[in-house]
């Protein structure tokens, strides 16, 4: 799927494509994980994780790219939960470059998540989003996602 977004006051057009993961995407994804998501992961660790995820049929990785530039990514996981009947697709991680936000890339990613869910027989798409990410929370709610509770994490 090829899309266009307009950046800046001069209506600069940037064409991007949403596609599968390429090895050359690692640096761009690492930048987004470390700066946009607010985590820290080394390039080496990230490359190993992406390789593991990409080889697992229960996962999908999509990248929004313009040439070699990574504008965003989404990682999806098919699974089973006790709370919902059938399968669930979880948005494990999603990030869009701050300069490209509010241009449709995130909406494209959610559309792919919902399509993937349908293909895998899942009746639910689930995701986590931090409290302080007001814009992201509003974005998900605008697209029909409902807040159900808190998410807790503990490093062990």
Please give a quick description of this structure.
The chain is an alpha+beta fold and 156 residues long. The chain has helices at residues 26-37, 43-54, 105-119, 134-142; strands spanning 2-7, 12-20, 59-66, 69-80, 87-96, 122-127.
CATH topology: Aminopeptidase
**Strand residues, percent:** 25-35%
Which oligomeric form is depicted? single chain
Rg (C-alpha, Å): 16 Å
Total domain count: 1
Spatial order of the strands forming the largest sheet: 1-2-3-4-5-6
Please describe the biggest sheet, giving its number of strands, its sense, and whether it closes into a barrel. Answer: 6 strands, mixed
Q: Given the helix and strand composition, which structural class is it?
A: alpha+beta
Just give the CATH class. Alpha Beta
CATH architecture type: 3-Layer(aba) Sandwich
Helix count from the secondary structure assignment: 4
Please give the alpha-carbon distance between the first and last residues.
40 Å
Order of helices and strands: EEHHEEEHEH
Helical residue percent band? 25-40%
Number of strands: 6
Uncertain spans: none
- Can you tell me the overall shape? globular
CATH 4th-level superfamily:
Gcn5-related N-acetyltransferase (GNAT)
Averaging pLDDT over every residue, what do you get?
Answer: 88
What does this structure look like?
By secondary structure, the protein is an alpha+beta fold. The protein has a single domain (17-142), classed as Gcn5-related N-acetyltransferase (GNAT) (Aminopeptidase, 3-Layer(aba) Sandwich). Helix content is 31%, strand content 33%. It contains four helices and six strands; from the N terminus they run ββααβββαβα. The protein has helices at residues 26-37, 43-54, 105-119, 134-142; strands spanning 2-7, 12-20, 59-66, 69-80, 87-96, 122-127. A six-stranded mixed sheet has the order 1-2-3-4-5-6. The longest helix has 15 residues, at 105-119. The radius of gyration is 16 Å and the shape is globular. The model has no long low-confidence stretch (mean pLDDT 88).
């Amino acid at each position: 799927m090829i899309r266009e977004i307009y950046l800046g006051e001069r209506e600069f057009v940037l064409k991007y494509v949403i596609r599968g993961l390429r090895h050359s995407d690692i640096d761009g994804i690492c930048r987004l994980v470390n700066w946009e998501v607010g985590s820290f992961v080394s390039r080496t660790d990230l490359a190993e994780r992406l390789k593991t995820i990409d080889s697992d049929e229960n996962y999908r990785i999509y990248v929004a790219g313009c040439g070699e530039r990574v504008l965003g990514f989404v990682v999806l996981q098919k699974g089973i939960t006790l709370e919902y009947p059938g399968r669930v697709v979880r948005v494990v991680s999603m990030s869009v470059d701050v300069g490209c936000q509010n241009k449709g890339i995130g909406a494209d990613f959610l559309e792919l998540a919902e399509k993937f869910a349908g293909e895998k027989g899942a009746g639910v798409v689930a995701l986590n989003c931090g409290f302080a990410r007001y814009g992201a929370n509003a974005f998900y709610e605008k697209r029909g996602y409902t807040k159900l509770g808190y998410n807790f994490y503990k490093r062990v």
